[in-house]
Amino acid sequence: MGVEQTDKSIILTHANGSTAEIYLFGATVTSWKVNGKENIFLSKKAALDGSAAIRGGIPVVFPIFGPPPSSPPEYAALKQHGFLRTQTWKLDKVLLDREEGVSVRLVAPPPPASFGHQDINVHYVVTLAGHQLVSDLHVRNNGKEDFKFQALLHTYLAVPDASKISITGIAAGVSYKDKVLGGQEFKAPGGSLVVDRQLDRVYAKIPSQEIQVSDGQEGGYKVRFRGFEDATIWNPTEEAGSKMGDMEPGGWDRYICVEPGFVSEWKSLPPGEQFIGQQTITLV
Ligand SMILES: O=P(O)(O)OC[C@H]1O[C@@H](O)[C@H](O)[C@@H](O)[C@@H]1O
User: Fold this and answer.
1) pLDDT tens across 20-35, in order?
2) Active site residues
């Protein structure tokens, strides 16, 4: 058991031997191993030197999801998925280090001066339990005006073969935007979703707040979310994946992104209040 910090990352080790690694750059969880099996995909071509957002792991998306909106100006000037995934965070505290879990809290630096909104505090708590990995994003508004944002945990779940997985938990009637089809809106049919084409869908307000991924080999994951209401499902397949400079060849076959978030609209956080978005991934 324990928490070890190197110059680049924090490594959590549970009594059962499972481990998790969190890069300070972006507070990106880059690895979660249970019984020697890696559950988080990290591209072999990912930049791990702070020169670009990490391709794979669990990047933290905030305060915008996707390309910047046209206004207001400080949001319009942001890069895709915002700044948290490319800031260098600090280990704030070890919250727990025992059988029930090993848990650390990281703190983000203040937002870039060009964004303003310096009165925002962001913390991230990562907890490694027996067969679970829990991540909680805390956003506190210490300012005097409402603060609006989007947030999402861009989780790359490792799978043996993406073409054989099935994704369930999104009920019939849930509306989604299909970004592959230019953002057209549809209603989910229910049942299971498979990766038989490029997927880039933003599902809004999923009542179950849980998505299951069956890996086609009697294993998989349950991704439960609280505070977050939406989820993006993304796999670029070869069609788009082969055009990504930091994606290893064939990498798109080895993961599915299930990304709980608050992204179908803006979250407005009143002064003095805190938002917590939580993701719990359980091995099944
Ligand atoms: O290349 P990035 O900025 O890490 O984004 C990866 C993907 O992230 C997903 O969440 C988006 O829905 C996709 O549209 C996007 O391509």
Assistant:
1) 999 999 999 999 999 9
2) 154, 259
